[in-house]
Design a protein that fits this description.
16% strand, four-stranded antiparallel beta sheet, 783 residues, 55% helix, 20 strands
């Protein structure tokens, strides 16, 4: 008897029963309310029992279950066996359902006229998730005689302590967005145009806090494990957690405007629906296999594409259809937004967030869009930086301006002559910027140069206009000028990064003053502005750490000292940790500190490649990042796969075809060479594009690309005379190590601002969540 499957069926039947009974109760049949609650509790108990059953078979190594054999092994440490619950799609669907049902229990306790209808809408995704656990759950078994003696285990890339907490937190955020969606749908049905704000606000704040916590955890994980020194790579799956958060933050500020002004009713209903739709859309992209060629994070296709699309379209049709049906009945605002007021600035900020969200959605949807016209392709990460940098400037200015203004209308309308004066200043700034960047126009970077000039012009226009018409902002502007000059002295010379620094410095200086005043009046009044302050600090750290660090690659013969970025490095050998993984030992002697760097570098049978984990030495003003690259022998190409143009060779289960080279900056000190490959794996062909970039000193930087599942493909050597390339691929014979360690040493200036800003921002939203919960309790007690 497969007890896990039985529990899945119980969860499906009880969720369907609960949905129908809540629908009947919402239609006026009071007698249906109690059995609806009972059925919902049974559903939650069945899902909880299924989760307990899954952990039981994982910890007892019952490899007759396909899921257990795929994501665990006898040698895996206990905390990773625990995390194997969500190591694959089947487990994450069950986790998603359990978390949504748990939040439903909390919603069911809220005393509000909207609760019954909201519980019906909350049950709809639960029915669909329970159906998935029945169709393709984690309790499918092997046929008799085909049970393996041991399992595959988790991918080594996932065997990190963050794996035990990051996915559950992220899925809690995804699940929580179902609650504002359900409350908004209930409000549309009951024509409660404003009555849904109070019960929805704590959930919107909670979703903002948990989702932000989830992707900040992911950034920390990437920074300390992956070895490329970044915390956000604009990966499509990373973007999948960002877009519902952006929409939800827009909803949060829109609800505050509606509560005070009675405006943005339709917009807020739209955003409440869109936030959850974006969760489902991102899940479809991640789980359908659409992004398998373009994202390391994406799951293997389980054949659920049709189901996932049905799930998505059902929620879209139900949500947007109901909103469209009720749209004419939704009353307009009692009075229009003030043209120069706090709510008008917040509304502009909401528009900026929505535009950011839309542009990121377009970028992450590129494989779907381009597939309509030919082979699917993805946008470069530079796309996201290009389109979002001007919006970040606008957002920083609005974050600094809005808290300084009054609700409804700022007294003292500015004279009309100041508008054209500010416009002339902006045009002059745009013209001067274009002149300074003539070289970019002539070297093929015209779009970036034009965008930069327009951005600078708009920036100067806004700054000049606001400086002369908003006296309260002048101190903030002066502080921003001072911090920007410090940034310029530190190396920030490009117009767009300098504009971002100015805007975020203005947001920081303005919100520090408002935060201090708010906390003096009581913690409830300062919490929101603390979040603005944290965001500004974090963005200043992002600009500094991602664009203005130094990096150099160096080869370290064993026992010999080499110099890099002012540090003396000596490779002293290897050491194994408690898990049997090799760490290279590098003695580092710097001007302020001596330390022993122990970056991990070990052979993985799972990936058939070296796994690498950097050493991070933390200082107050920066991090020193030492990432191992390879052990260099006499001939690094001896154990590589050599391919001529058009040649196809098979290694293991993968066939590789070399299409050709893509060379940029030929003959320059920063030449980039990419090998365009096709890999045929599992019956499908995916593009693979590893590359080599020459550093300023001529040192090559090898940047791998990844196969579905996370295995890496790297360029080892290039033979320009014969047009051949040597690549390191999974499944090759484990190379014999040489005595020379190649490492990349880099600095991450002001990286601590990223973490400090993130902590301030998260602290703010959790304080705000506490405030909203207290407001709801007071309202319930007085009702």
């Amino acid at each position: 008897m497969n007890f896990g499957q039985i529990l899945g069926w119980v969860a499906l039947i009880s969720s369907l029963s609960s949905a129908l009974l809540f629908l009947a109760a919402a239609g006026g049949r009071e007698a249906a309310l109690r059995p609806a609650r009972i059925a919902f509790h049974i559903q939650w108990l069945a899902l909880l029992g299924g989760a307990a059953m899954l952990w039981y078979i994982l910890f007892n190594h019952q490899f007759q279950y396909q899921y257990v054999a795929s994501y665990s092994s006898r040698s895996m440490p206990g905390h990773f066996v625990y995390a194997a619950f969500w190591g694959g799609q089947e487990g994450t669907f069950m986790l998603w359902a359990l978390l949504t049902a748990t939040l439903g229990l909390l919603l069911m306790r809220v005393r509000n006229p909207l609760t019954t209808q909201a519980m019906f809408f909350l049950n709809l995704p639960l029915v669909l998730l329970a159906l998935v656990t029945v169709m393709r759950g984690p309790f499918l078994e092997f046929a008799p005689g085909k049970i393996p003696a041991d399992g595959n285990g988790l991918n080594p890339l996932l065997q990190d302590p963050w794996m035990t907490i990051h996915p559950p937190v992220l899925f809690t955020g995804f699940s929580s967005l179902a609650v504002p969606f359900a409350i908004a749908m209930a409000a549309l049905v009951r024509r409660e145009w404003d009555g849904w704000i109070r019960p929805a606000l704590p959930w919107v704040v909670f979703s903002t806090a948990i989702l932000a916590t989830g992707f900040i955890m992911g950034g920390v994980w990437a920074y300390k494990v992956l070895g490329w020194g970044g915390y956000w790579g604009w990966d499509p799956v990373e973007n999948g957690s960002l877009i519902p958060w952006l929409s939800n933050v827009g909803l949060l500020h829109g609800l505050m405007i509606q509560r005070v002004q009675g405006s943005l009713r339709r917009t807020n209903f739209f955003l409440a629906i869109t936030s959850y739709v974006l969760v489902l859309y991102a899940s479809f992209l991640t789980r359908s296999g659409v992004l398998a060629d373009f994202s390391v994070h994406s799951f293997v296709n389980l054949g659920l594409n049709g189901f996932l699309l049905t799930f998505l379209f059902l929620i879209m049709i139900l949500g947007y259809g109901t909103l469209l049906y009720r749209s004419r009945e939704i009353p307009g605002p009692p009075q229009p937004l003030g043209s120069f007021s706090r709510e008008s600035m917040m509304w502009l900020g909401q528009l900026v967030l929505m535009l950011m969200c839309a542009l990121v959605v377009v970028g992450m949807s590129a494989p779907l869009i381009t597939k309509l016209f030919g082979p699917p392709s993805n946008v470069q990460t530079s796309y996201y930086n290009l389109v979002n940098a001007p919006l970040a400037v606008a957002l920083g200015l609005l974050l600094g301006i809005a808290p300084l203004m009054r609700w409804r209308e700022q007294p003292g309308a500015p004279p009309t002559w100041r508008l054209p004066a500010a416009g002339i200043a902006g045009l002059v700034a745009a013209f001067l910027t274009a002149m300074l960047r003539r070289g970019a126009l002539e070297t093929g970077n015209a779009m970036a140069a034009i965008a930069g000039a327009i951005g600078v012009g708009a920036f100067v226009f806004v700054v000049v206009l606001l400086f002369v018409i908003l006296p309260a902002a002048r101190a903030g502007f002066i502080g921003a000028v001072i911090l920007t000059l410090v940034g310029i002295a530190g190396g920030v010379r490009e117009p767009m990064p300098a504009a971002v620094v100015f805007a975020m410095a203005f947001a920081l200086t303005s919100n520090i003053a408002v935060t201090v005043r708010g906390f003096r009046a009581g913690w409830k009044h300062g919490a929101a502005y603390l979040g603005h302050t944290g965001f500004a600090v974090m963005m200043l750290g992002v600009v500094a750490s991602s664009g203005y660090g130094r990096s150099v690659q160096v080869q370290l013969p064993r026992g010999e000292q080499r110099s890099a970025l002012g540090f003396q490095l000596t490779f002293e050998g290897k050491r194994q940790d408690r898990e049997g993984k090799d760490h290279v030992i590098v003695a580092v002697n710097g001007p302020d500190r001596r330390f022993e760097a122990l970056p991990a570098m070990y052979w993985s049978e799972f990936n058939q490649a070296y796994m690498k984990k950097p050493h991070i030495e933390r200082f107050l003003t920066h991090d020193v990042y030492i990432s191992p690259l390879e052990m260099v022998g006499d001939n690094p190409g001896d154990h590589a796969l050599w391919l001529a143009k058009g040649e196809t060779r098979r290694v293991g289960q993968v066939s590789y075809t070399f299409v050709g080279f893509d060379v940029q900056g030929m003959g320059t000190a920063e030449m980039k060479v990419a090998a365009q490959l096709r890999a045929e794996i599992g019956g499908r062909t995916v593009p693979v594009r590893p590359r080599i970039e020459m550093g300023g000193g001529g040192t090559p930087n090898r940047i791998p690309d990844y196969l579905p599942g996370g295995a890496s493909v790297s360029i080892v050597s290039v033979d320009a005379s014969s047009g051949r390339v040597a690549i390191e691929v999974p499944g090759m014979q484990e190379p014999k190590e040489g005595g020379i360690l190649a490492v990349e040493v880099s600095t991450k200036p002001l990286i601590n601002l990223v973490w400090a800003g993130a902590i301030l921002m998260l602290g703010s939203v959790f304080l705000s969540m506490g405030r909203r919960i207290l407001d709801v309790r007071r309202a319930s007690a007085s009702a």
